[in-house]
Amino acid sequence: DIQGEKVNKKISSERLQKIKVIGHRGGGGIEREENSLEAMERGLREGANALEIDIRKTRDAKLVVHHDADMKRIIGLNKRIEDLSSEEIEKLKTKAGTKIPSLEEVFEAFGKRTSLILDVKVRGIRPELMKLIKRYKIRNIAIIGSYDIITEYKDSGIPTGLTALVARNALRFQFDELAEMFPYIESIRER
Q: Which pTM was predicted?
C-alpha cells in the first residue's frame, strides 16, 4: 500500500546494513539443488551473509549435508541417510546432477568464508560435530534444531537457536530451561 511504501523508503541505510541475508539450505533454488556446494556458492554470490545447512549422520557415523531423512525427493531413491554409508552417498547424484556434500567438504569450502548455521536434524552427533568444528577452526557458527537436539549443545559455547513448527496449544517445553538457554525470551502468551 501507499503508506507502506512511504515507510519502506524511510528505512535508513544504517538499518539496511544490519539486515542479515541467510542462504536457506545453502541458498539453493531453481538452478541448483538445496544444500549442495553449488547452491552455497550461489547463495554467497547472490549476497547471503550466512549459510544455513542441514546436518545428518550416515550409517558409518559421517556427517553429511542433507535436509530430508531419506533420498526420495532429491535423488528419487527410497533409502534413509542413516541406512547408507558415506561411500554410498558420495557416489549418488541429485536430480540436478549435484552431489550430497559431507560436512567436512562444506567446512573446507566455506568455513573461513562465511558464517554457518547448522540445522542439526539428528540427536547424538555432538562428539563428531564438535571434533570437526575444532579441526577446521570454525568460528562463525551457530547450531539450530528442535528442542531435544539443541539441549545437547547448551554448554558447548556455540550459540544455539530453536526451530519449531507447532500447532496452537501444542507447546510442551520446559519454559525454565528455554529461558535459561535463550535469555531474550521474556514470555510466551496464549492468544
A: 0.79
Amino acid at residue number 9:
K
What would the DSSP string read from start to end of 21-90?
A: -EEGGGG--SSS-TTSHHHHHHHHHTT-SEEEEEEEE-TTS-EEE-SSSEEHHHHSEEEEGGGS-HHHHH
The predicted pLDDT at position 98 comes to 92
Extract the C-alpha cell encoding 179. 529461558
Q: What angle do CA 31, 37, 38 make, to 5 degrees?
A: 25
Cell of 29: 533454488
What's the pLDDT tens digit per position in 148-184?
898 899 899 999 888 765 444 444 454 555 556 555 4
